[in-house]
Amino acid sequence: MGKQKSKPFQSTHNLAFEVAEWRPLLCGNEDGWQCFRVGTCEGLWRATADAYEILAVINSEPNNGHFEDVLEWFERSCRRDRRTLRIRELLNEEFRRHLMEKRGFIADGKDDLIKRFQKAA
Q: Whose CB has fewer CB within 10 Å in the chain, the N or C terminal residue?
């Protein structure tokens, strides 16, 4: 029996995951951060040996559901690549509580959250 082809991933709002090089004005980018955009959400992310990390994300049109698509893209990639998802330097307590209570993240140090995945999707 032949290997089945998987169908292309489609997020809830059918939004693409776009990536661009991040070029900070005042310093270099030795840590490998990249820009991403999913719909109206933009942010910074990077890949490490064991995780995909999100450093920043902002939605220019809050409450439109596009952050859901951001998480769908990252979670799918984490499952596929057998990595964890880490949100770095999270200082917004309300957002932190939401991610822990409703999205399955756990504390990882003082300001970081992490979500682990069992197997590829």
A: N
